[in-house]
Amino acid sequence: KPALEARDILGILSTSSTLIQGHTIVVSGDSSLHMVPGWFYDPERHASGETMFINKIDADLAFYRRVLEGDADNQVPGCPGMNPETTGRLLSAFKDDEALWLDENWTWHRHVWEAVVEAFRKAGQSESEALLQARLIRVLREPDYSWDTEEVH
């Protein structure tokens, strides 16, 4: 069974409504935790004690951004040729599309994923490579993991 990274445990606990009662705040300098919705505090960046709330759409966009740009700290290359500017242009079309994001059929995610895959294809990569990057980048949330079976969904 796969071992969970500390950031995955933080992601699962902070998004669970049953494992921890009450409100949670993630305290970390790891910006990959911006892919997890909820309250966040980075003591290195917010010395004044200021907290930041990351809503679900921004957390999801942060995930797709990392898939495209990669994560040098974790040796995940991302999509060749993508950088913050090109990624920003690609994902900006999805930022204000909350109606699709709220759709129970995951229409918004399907549209964003298709754009991500297309970027990988334009760079000479396959959807399989995009999926591998996504699996390496993802910080787990409560619905992604079963404590009973100790398996990632």
Please give a structural write-up.
This protein is mainly α. It has two domains: 6-54 and 140-152, no CATH class; 56-137, no CATH class. The protein is 44% helix and 9% strand. It is built from six helices and five strands; from the N terminus they run H-E-E-E-H-H-H-H-H-E-E. Strand 4 (145-146) and strand 5 form a beta hairpin. Helix 2 (56-69) runs antiparallel to helix 3 (84-95) and helix 2 (56-69) packs across helix 6 (127-137). The longest helix has 16 residues, at 107-122. The protein is globular, with a radius of gyration of 16 Å. The mean pLDDT is 89.
How do the strands line up in the largest sheet? 1-2-3
Q: How large is the radius of gyration?
A: 16 Å
Distance between the termini: 12 Å
Which sheet architecture does the biggest sheet show? 3 strands, mixed
Low-confidence runs:
none
Number of domains: 2
Helix and strand element order: HEEEHHHHHEE
List the main descriptive attributes of the protein structure presented here.
44% helix; 3-stranded mixed β-sheet; 5 strands; two-stranded antiparallel ribbon; mainly alpha
What topology emerges from the helices and strands here?
Elements: H1 6-15, E1 25-27, E2 38-41, E3 52-54, H2 56-69, H3 84-95, H4 98-102, H5 107-122, H6 127-137, E4 145-146, E5 151-152
Parallel strand pairs: 1-2
Antiparallel strand pairs: 2-3, 4-5
Short overview:
The model has no long low-confidence stretch (mean pLDDT 89). A hairpin with a 4-residue loop joins strand 4 and strand 5. By secondary structure, this protein is mostly helical.
